[in-house]
Fold each of these.
Amino acid sequence: MNVLASLWRLLDERFELAPVVEFITHKEVPQHRHSWAYYLGGLTLFFFGIQVATGILLLLYYRPTAEAAFESVQFIVTRVPFGWLIRSIHSWSANLMILSAFAHMFSVYLLGAYAKPREATWWTGVALLGLALGFGFSGYLLPWNELSFFATRIGTDIVSKVPVIGAWLLKFLRGGEEVTGATLTRFFGFHVAVLPMITGALIGLHLAFIQRQGMHVPENLGKEAQQRKPLRFLPNFVMREGVVWLAGLAILAAVAAFFPWELGSKADLFASAPAGIKPEWYFLFMFETLKLLPAHVLGIEGELVGLAGFSLAGLVWFLVPVLDRGSVRGQRARFFLFLGWAALAYIVSFTVLSFAGAFK
Amino acid sequence: MTESGADSRLTRSGFLTWLLGTSLGATLLAAAYPVFRFVIPPEVAEAPVNRVLAAKLSELPVNTGKIFRFGAKPAILVRTPAGDVRAFSAQCTHLNCTVQYRPDFQHVWCACHNGHYDLQGKNIAGPPPRPLESYRVDIAGDEVFVSKGA
Amino acid sequence: MRPSFHLVLALVAAAVTAAAGPPPPAAVGVPGKRADDTCVACHRALDDPRLHAPAAAADTDVHFSQGISCAGCHGGDPRAQDAEKAMDPARGFVGRISATAIPELCGSCHANAAFMLRWAPNIPTDQLAQYRTSKHGQALAKGDTNVAVCTSCHRAHGVLPPTDARAPVYPTRIVDTCARCHADTTLMARYGIKGIEVAEYKRSVHFAALTKKNDLSAPTCKSCHGAHGATPPGISSVSNVCGTCHLAQRERFDLSPHKAAFATLSQPACESCHSNHAIVHPLDSWIGVGDGQVCGQCHSAGDAGAKAAIAVAHDLGTTTGAFTAAQTRVTRVSRAGMLMDDAQVKLEEAHQALVLAQVEIHTADVVRVQSQTKQIMAAATAAEKLAAAAEKELRYRRTGLFVSLVVIALAMIALIFKIRAMER
């Protein structure tokens, strides 16, 4: 204790920590029927932290060229002590992070937390989800195995359908016309430098906004929140958050143990695509929807219509704080609530059905 | 909240604190130990698929061959009657049997279907359709290194 | 064109004379100086394709590039501007050369070692002698002009060395050259030849090696039949011919009871099981006395040979099965992310033993086959052991992670209780 006290005095004399401590110890988290949702953002951050740590560890051995990538991952999982564990955790935590991000986003939407004054928090959040998907897509190629090569080829094919800039966008993403070693190097650059930098900045902003503005309480739960005693951030909320994080860690350990991540076989650029190739689960709903669309809709190519549809939906989703005018006054439009439930139902059902093989 | 240190282990709160501390510590250790082992590189620093130490020159007499491994694939190191050191893939281009050096023929031979390869790795008799793949040989002192991409 | 030219041509067409000895010195001009050669110059300007084509072919002709022009075979005067003088029989012109005259004509240079020494010392000079022993040569000597002569395979004009990829006798093209006659069933019927041999050969592994694996040393028609001395090998020589490449199998065949038996029965050795032209990849399932199995051609169920065949087949079957099972298991474990290098080495050993076992089949001796199949079993078992160890390690990891799960759960429970205790 004495050591801690002198350390405290050391820092306080230089950085005046009293206001910070004041803020942290007096910060409160409102309690109501849906305050369990407040843990989801932190859980996403936890998984992201694991990604950064395991990602840096993998960087010590990984080689981002077509000739060596698969072999370096093979080296990690077969020869480096606990390499199999670090790699399996990195692959699984990525999936859990994205799942958690979706859950966090939908709970925020359905609770109307995007309303004024939290528009910027919503916008940074949607951008962060996009970045998370970008992390997932770019990272998936890095082991350079059969599945990742073909999934990347099919996934990047879609961008060529964008009008006007489609061809340029394709070359920008792929580092050429086709998916090659150049694509791998480029995706590696995105995955370990570009995306982390942007994500770091946006997380910083996102957290700063939350700290400044506190937690949102849904309008219909305001009375309940006032009646129930709010939780102190430190130590009560933080300890509970610790429980949630430990639960996340447990789930991670469980899936890493019972469903270890495969190494697969090295990508062969000239082989034909294996049957039943599909993207990772978080892209499945889009993938299946695009497959369902007819070849042409009113003379326009079906895939382009699908792409436009998703872009439009994404734009509406992004702009919901502005579009839902009632939310400014604390009266959310029922329409947007319905839209949120519909979007959730669509994504969940299509993902589950795809796994069940309903789209064969 | 807690009693004096000597009795704290006996109280429920004390026990809880101990349990919490120990289990969190164990979790932390379970996470830190693999990380610590991971960052120290293994004995074999690189996967032996592109460059291997094939033999010691002093242990390779003239007019002999030695089979060594490139990862999982067999390769053959040949010390010619003239004293040169050459390396080739040891997988016969006919049906992938492992070839050997025959000091009596003074060239490489495959036991399966009697394929013959000269000291350049070229197929000179029998069923093999193509020469043996050639590897690059670097000699550093007494150590003979073989790498792919002659 | 001038009418007299056509008259001369008509006269010349009837002339048949074999040119003996080397061509007249005047006809062997300076290489490249084709402009001086009036034969080529005139004939190039003609419309009739039969007269135009030989002159056009001069550009690629190997004889022309060495300075041996039209007159070298056809006689006449290549420096005469006038067609009559150029194609004057008095100056040695012989016009169209008959089939029966061609071998001797070509041989007038190519069988003359002293002459060939001056132009192409590394070309053999025994082609004419060999040709005379061949089925083609013997038929021609009896007056049959339907058989192949030198120009049938090498062309008359635009002759290319056999090492030139455009030559009709280049390894990848020679089969189709032989096929021009030998695939004509009507023509072959006259000689008691079925005419399906080329089609059968094209199904063979030898043809596949030539065309798909780009192995130019793969056997073509001439490899077994001879090129100039083209004759089918006699029944007793079949194993000699196959054995020039397949020495290991031939040596083992010589150790087997089949060698003596086949000789007595006048059975062609290798051909009896492997066929002569449609030589496809042999399968272990061929061994036995059942339907479609080769041993059943001579052996019946219950005799010593049948028993041996069934024993060999059974042995190969079980060990190959073990090898395949080991391969599948190792691949699965390798895909899961375990290091399987040592297991791969064992699988290579098993593969090699299998190849050697399949060679030992030719001894028709179960014991010798078993000496190899034992090694297949040993190597496959070793590979399975290594795969099993890797699977065990995978299960061990799962257990370890399960233990960590328990630790985390404990921490969670302790934390929850701590929170409860704190907030009471």
Amino acid sequence: MSLPILQVDQLQAGYETPVVGPLSFHVNQGDVIGIAGPNGTGKSTLLKAVANGVHIFAGEIRKRADLNVAWMDQHPVQLPEMPFSGWEYLRFTEADRAPPEFLARWLDQRVDALSGGQYQLLCLWSVLGGHADLLLLDEPTNNLDQHSARVIEDTLKADQGSRAVLVVSHERGFLERVAHRVLEVDS
Amino acid sequence: MDILLDPLFRIPFFVGLFVSIVLPAAGTLLRLREEWLAALGLAHLAGASGLVGLAANVPAVLGAPLGAVVGALIKAFGNFRGNTVYALMILAGWAITLLVASNSSLGSVMGHALFEGQLYFAGMVHLSAAICLVVLAALVLPRCMSKLIRARLQPTFEIANAVPAWRWHLSFDLLAALGIAVGAGTLGLMGAFALAFVPPWVAFRAARTWRQCLWISIGVGLLSYTAAFVVALLFDQPFGPVLVATLLVFGGLILAAGTRIRVFE
């Protein structure tokens, strides 16, 4: 059996003070792990801790040495001016897997002319369409209509191959449909 | 019209032409990083150190880069983000420039020249600096551009993978600083700033893709520079102000034309 690509032991992480933990879990290749819990319990902070984005107060996070991580924040960067077509956006973020057909239809447009939902989907595909070993998705279904959310669901339910996914969502049903197991985070 | 073909002005023309390729391209990335004030901050520091150099008989095109490079290093290693550090550079550069100008024998004349631009006095030193700048840009931009763009669109990538991103951020900061410095030492302080600011401003509004954005930016810079060179020579006007005015007129016309086209689409 192969070693986990991510091992979290007794982790306590946060900003000025710990927000989440102590928590322990591991992630293997191909795993899709949901992270659930009430608001303010540190679900997003847990993803940020894995992505080197917050202070670790106690415990440790061990990653496979060559692990390539892609992290989609809850609020993706939206610049006041973005003179990029959608295709260029995906090229610059190195997402070279073919996008879903309904997303491909918008990709000739300038990114800052897309609606909130279209932009969310583009950012999501910039992570899903790349070649990272571990995907960190924070509330990926925000602003998405049912059809788009279903496409994302299908993508996550499909065989992830050698990569793994950690996904935070406040939608319990979504997590139960896409994740192999759900990690409960509470205060 | 004969004056335009005078060999005396060939070197100055090519010096400005080379700078007019690099500054709009660098300015496009500065605007993407919302650091367009960098051009003015670095130009002020370059102007101040260029003036200190002139007072010590060092050509402005050699003295100016020192201040700009120091500015870029302060920005890179001081972990500053956004425009605050550039506003401080403007204030420091302005104060130093005026104090040096007031306290050196030819200071006010030199200060005036630095603000207006000394393009018509450009010689082989300036041409060498401009060629070095173009070569440096040709080396740095193709290697760094996609990384800098990704850092802007998806900053989480560098953080999550602990990428040693300082290398390309610093490389670009230094290129921008040198570009502004060579520009300030030849086209004048405001001319250099305008070349890094106006073409990208127009391009960001007019372009549909990043590739178009770069080409529009460089095109507006080159076209405005060439027109300004001709107008300033024919009408015996100071180059810096003519360049700034030309950039504003071309920029305004392009944006107005773009608006009309959208209205009729």
